[in-house]
Design brief:
With 128 residues, the chain is mainly alpha-helical. Helices cover 66% and strands 5% of the residues. It contains 4 helices and 2 strands; from the N terminus they run αββααα. Strands 1-2 form a two-stranded antiparallel ribbon. Strand 1 and strand 2 form a beta hairpin. The longest helix is centred in the first third of the chain and has 48 residues. It is elongated. The N and C termini lie far apart (88 Å).
Length: 128
């Protein structure tokens, strides 16, 4: 009877050890996958902030090595779609717009920040 109890305890102990090992392997795999996901999510921002890519699209958070590639990007469907979406959100929620000073501009003829963006979006809306 004593031998049977020891065998039962030994089986329970080995099952517990096996379960712990399986759980540890499972948690290690989850941690590895989380690191991969984190790398994937931060890669576009690292690319955007890369000093070797000085030509940037602030709407799409993309950067380019050459100015002409950026100019081509400005005419791309994805860029125009994001631009239109951003403008719609800004029209719906004016708080998202760049805040203007209450005192007025020191140079009233100087273009206001975002005015080019607004004129481009206005022309897009007019084409509808």
């Amino acid at each position: 009877e004593n031998v049977a109890n020891k065998e039962t305890e030994s089986v329970k102990s080995s099952k517990t050890d096996e379960n712990e090992r399986i759980m540890k392997d499972h948690l290690d795999n989850i941690a590895k996958q989380a690191k991969k996901v984190d790398k994937i999510l931060t890669y576009p921002m690292e690319k955007y902030l890369d000093p070797n890519r000085p030509f940037k699209c602030d709407v799409c958070k993309e950067s380019f090595t050459q100015k002409n590639i950026l100019l081509v990007h400005f005419n791309s469907v994805s860029h125009l779609h994001k631009l239109k979406k951003v403008m719609k959100e800004q029209q719906e929620n004016p708080l998202l717009l760049t805040p203007q000073s209450d005192k007025g501009s020191p140079n009233p003829t100087a273009p206001q920040p975002g005015s080019t963006l607004l004129s481009v979006l206005g022309s897009l809306n007019a084409k509808k």
